[in-house]
Design goal:
Elements: E1 5-13, H1 16-26, E2 48-51, H2 57-64, H3 66-76, H4 87-93, E3 99-106, H5 116-134, E4 141-147, E5 154-159, E6 162-167, E7 172-177, H6 186-202, E8 208-209, H7 221-255, E9 260-261, E10 266-267, H8 270-359, H9 362-377, H10 383-390, H11 396-402, H12 413-422
Parallel strand pairs: 1-8
Antiparallel strand pairs: 1-3, 2-4, 3-5, 4-5, 6-7, 9-10
Helix pairs in contact: 5-6, 7-8, 8-9, 8-10, 10-11
Length: about 425
Amino acid sequence: MDLNYAIFKSEPIMTLNDLAQIGSHNKREKKAYKSNPDIKLELTKDNIELVPLADKYVKGFYNLTKEYKKEHDERMKTEREDRKRTFNQMLNKSKSVVADELLFTATHEFFKDMNKEDIKKWAEVCMDFVYEDLGYTKEQVLHAVVHLDEKTPHVHCVVVPLVKKYDKRTNTERYTISKKQYIRDKIHLSELQDIYHKRLTDNGYDLERGIKHSDNESIPIREYKKITRKLNHSLNVRNERLENVMTNLEEQMKSNKEVMFDKEYVKVKKETFDTMNHVFKETKKVMEIQPKLQQVFDEVDSYSQNYHSVQKENKRMKKEVETLKSKNKKLQEENKNLISYIKSILKVIKHFFRELLQIGNEKTKEATTNEIKDYFDNEDFNKEDIYDIAIETTKEDELFDYADIPSYMKINSNNVKEVEDKGYEMEI
C-alpha cells in the first residue's frame, strides 16, 4: 500500500545575508552545486516561476520595504546617538525575521505520473493556501518558484511579513516585520498543516497528513533503524504464526477423512474447525497490521532520507565554516599589517601638511587646510592630529574651530616648547 504525504514547512530567514544566499539558491545563480548533486542545471529551464523576481533577493526586499526604511530613517533623526542604527543594522540585529521561506512538496511517488502542467496546478493550490489560509497578500510575496531540476518537485515561496502595528509607546502605527502575525508558534503551524492538507484533498489530491509534531531532523538515524527492525520483527512474527496454523490446517485436512458434505453443510472434526478459525483470526491480524506497517515504513523512509540530507548539508557547512575561519584569520593578520602601514603613511602626511602650513604661500595653505578638513571628516585624523598639525600656524584658529578643539588648548609657543621638552601628553 503506497501512501503519499503532503509536506509544508516554514523556515525563518534572520539576516539580509541569509536572504541573499537563499535567493542565489532559489534562482539558480551559481554555476555549480557541488553540495547538492540532485540539482540538474540542464533542467533548470523547466523550473516554473509562480511569482517572478527580476532583481536579486536583497534588492527586491528593499523595493518591498522602502516605506518601512523611510519611516525608520525619519525616526533615527530624533533618536539618541547611542541608539541610532542604520536600516540594515536594525534588521540584522533584530530577533525578528527579515523574511520567511515556505516550502511545499510531497513524497516522490506523488509526482510520478504528473506532467509539468499538472505540477503547476498543484503548485497554484499551494499558493492559494499562502494567500487565503496564511493571509499573505501578493505584494508580500518576494518570489515563488517550482524547482523541477531536483529529484522531487517542490515550491520555494519567500514572503516578507511586513505589517503595520500599533505602537503603544508612540501611540502611532508603525511598520514592522512579524512572522508571528501569520504563524504564531509550533501549535499554530501544526494547525496550518492540517488546513493545508485539507485544501489539497478538497482539490482532489490523494495525500496523507504527515505525523503530527514530528521532528525528523532531531532524531538520530540509528533510532529509525531501531524502529524499522522492531516493525520487521513484528511482521515476521505475524507471518510465522500464520504459516504455522496454515501448515497445521493442511496436515489436519489430509488426515481428516470424515468430511461429510450435503447441499448446505460441510461436516469436519471440531479440532479441524478450531484450527480453521485460528487461521482466519491470524490472517485477519496480518491484514490489519499490513497497511499500518507500510505507512510507518514509508514515513520512516521519508524521514531517513531527509535526515541524511540534513547530515550531509551540516557536514558541508562545517567544512565551509572551517574554511571561512582560516580565511578570516588570514584577513585579520593582513588587516593588522595594513592598519600599521596606514598609520605610518598618515604620520608622514601629518608632517607634510604641517610643513606646508608653516612654509607654504597663502594659496598652498588654503588648499592644505581644505585637505586637512577632509581627512578629519573621513575620520582619518582626530582632534589630536589636528592639534599637532595646526598649532602655531596661521591656520590654527580655523582648524581648531573646525575640529572643535577647546580654547584652552590654544597655548603660546613657550608653553608648547615646555610641553614638548617635558614630554607631557595633551588629552583632547
